[in-house]
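Input structure tokens:
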């Protein structure tokens, strides 16, 4: 069931009647406004704009969605490929003029190498769980050309937990990393299967990179516990 892709197709076809609802293990109900998934460069948050400005060479946009980042880079003359597991998302990308697309999960893709890999809108979340982050990073590393880079943004969601008087945070299930979240999406009364999504604080990401032979540089911090990081192979 491609809920995300169907929502993108509906919006692109001028059949926009509702947004995607999300339910998470953090006991929160939220929504993903479909117009935001079709934003242009001027509407993107500063972290995304900065990442696109830092892109070089041949680019892979992982979890490309409706193709916003790819279309921007195409216009700038970059050879850019949009990859997404959603068939509907890839169809929308093609309809919008994205020249190179791949309809696969990133862990199933190994056909080419790139100078820049983008994982925006918390694309590192595709790793699912902290335990799997090393495997995920190593696969990304295998897709990099020499001197290539990975640009990703994520958030430290510690702020979502109650804080003690001594400044510590009360995390109900301390056995798991607090950035591991389970999501379910709903669109037009259809619900997706639950899936894991990872939010990783910068220090944890940096430690994971060091353990897997990668450099991790903080490029810029956002206004709300978010950040943009640049990863590269350790020389």
């Amino acid at each position: 069931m491609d809920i995300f892709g169907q929502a993108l197709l509906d919006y692109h076809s001028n059949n926009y009647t509702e947004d995607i609802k999300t339910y998470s293990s953090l006991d929160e109900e939220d929504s993903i406004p479909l117009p935001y998934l079709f934003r242009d460069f001027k509407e993107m948050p500063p972290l995304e704009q900065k990442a696109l400005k830092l892109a070089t060479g041949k680019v892979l946009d992982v979890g490309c969605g409706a193709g916003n980042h790819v279309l921007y880079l195409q216009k700038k003359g970059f050879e850019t490929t949009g990859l997404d597991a959603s068939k509907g998302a890839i169809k929308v990308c093609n309809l919008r003029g994205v020249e190179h697309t791949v309809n696969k999960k990133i862990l199933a893709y190994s056909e080419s190498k790139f100078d820049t890999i983008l994982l925006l809108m918390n694309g590192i979340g595709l790793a699912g769980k902290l335990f799997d982050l090393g495997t995920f990073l190593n696969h990304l590393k295998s897709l990099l050309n020499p001197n290539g880079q990975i640009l990703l943004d994520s958030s430290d969601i510690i702020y979502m937990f109650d804080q003690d008087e001594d400044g510590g945070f009360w995390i109900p299930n301390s056995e798991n990393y607090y950035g591991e979240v389970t999501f379910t999406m709903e669109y037009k009364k259809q619900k997706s299967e639950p899936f894991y999504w990872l939010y990783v604080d910068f220090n944890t990401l940096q430690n994971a990179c060091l353990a897997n032979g990668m450099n991790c540089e903080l490029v810029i911090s956002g206004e709300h516990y978010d950040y943009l990081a640049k990863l590269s192979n350790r020389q």
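The helical segments are 3-12, 46-54, 68-75, 87-96, 133-142, 202-211. The chain has one domain: 3-233.
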